[in-house]
């Protein structure tokens, strides 16, 4: 980011703006997390347009989660393009799997994502109705009961250059009992910006279900 020499007062104002809403390198994202526990979560994801990600370990990712125990969805890097992933613990290779999508989606295409808590310390990820992974959790005992669930848009942006337009979750639903029906994701949940760099360059187009645009830094 460009260095600008400011007066003391301007520097304070700039610092406040940066920590609350402006661009920053590193990780940023937007999250919707329920207050109530559920057994699973599913929804349709609309692939964004105008995608650019720096080829330096940066990425963009869009996923559903069972609390902070398991997170599954799709992500994009220049080297692997769009891929599916399920992460139930990064420190254990058996709990963290990913693979490029066999058919790379076009902008505007919808992908159905479902993440299910099996209540036996495993979770299952389904992409377009097909089971992709069933993985054990890294920490035994952490997925034997229903959890809060979430939808997340996030980025690792090492050069403040990542961007996309119009990524969206649609028709997101939660499962209220084991093997039971799905109902609409709670409408009273507001987005939060939980990551170290806060909101970053995200524009929240729709807050629930989540729809965003990511702008490159200035």
In short:
6% of the residues lie in helices and 48% in strands.
Features:
globular, nine-stranded antiparallel beta sheet, single chain, six-stranded antiparallel beta sheet, 218 residues, disordered N terminus, mainly beta
Description:
This protein is mainly beta. It contains one helix and 15 strands. β4 and β5 form a beta hairpin. It is globular and about 40 Å long.
Describe the secondary structure blueprint for this structure.
Elements: H1 8-20, E1 26-33, E2 40-46, E3 49-52, E4 59-66, E5 70-77, E6 81-87, E7 96-100, E8 110-117, E9 122-127, E10 130-136, E11 149-157, E12 163-175, E13 182-184, E14 202-207, E15 210-214
Antiparallel strand pairs: 1-11, 2-8, 2-12, 3-12, 4-5, 4-11, 5-6, 6-7, 8-9, 9-10, 12-13, 12-15, 14-15
Number of strands: 15
* Largest sheet data: 9 strands, antiparallel
Radius of gyration: 18 Å
| Topology as a string of helices (H) and strands (E) | HEEEEEEEEEEEEEEE
Query: In whole angstroms, how far apart are the ends?
Result: 7 Å
Strand content: over 45%
Summarize the amount of helix as a percent range.
Answer: under 10%
Residue-averaged pLDDT: 88
Helical element count?
1
SS class:
mainly beta
Given as residue ranges, the uncertain stretches (5+ residues, pLDDT < 50) are 1-23
Shape: globular
């Amino acid at each position: 980011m460009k260095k600008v020499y400011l007066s003391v007062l301007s520097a304070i104002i700039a610092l406040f703006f940066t920590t609350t809403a402006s661009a920053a390198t590193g990780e940023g994202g937007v999250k919707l997390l329920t207050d109530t526990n559920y057994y699973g979560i599913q929804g349709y994801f609309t692939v964004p347009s105008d995608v650019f990600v720096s080829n330096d370990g940066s990425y963009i990712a869009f996923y559903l989660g069972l609390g902070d125990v398991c997170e599954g969805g799709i992500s994009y890097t220049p080297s692997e393009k769009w891929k599916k992933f399920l992460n139930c613990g990064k420190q254990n290779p058996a709990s963290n799997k990913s693979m490029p999508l066999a058919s790379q989606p076009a902008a505007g295409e919808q992908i159905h994502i479902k993440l299910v808590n099996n209540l036996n310390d495993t979770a299952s990820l389904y992409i377009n109705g097909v089971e992709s992974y069933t993985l054990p959790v890294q920490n035994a005992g952490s997925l034997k009961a229903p959890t809060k669930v979430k939808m997340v848009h996030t980025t690792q942006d090492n050069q403040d250059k990542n961007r996309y337009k119009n990524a969206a979750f649609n028709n997101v639903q939660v499962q209220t009992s084991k093997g039971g029906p799905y109902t609409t994701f709670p409408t009273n949940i507001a987005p939060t910006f939980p990551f170290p760099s806060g909101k970053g360059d995200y524009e929240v187009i729709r807050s629930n279900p989540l729809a965003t645009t990511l702008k490159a830094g200035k």
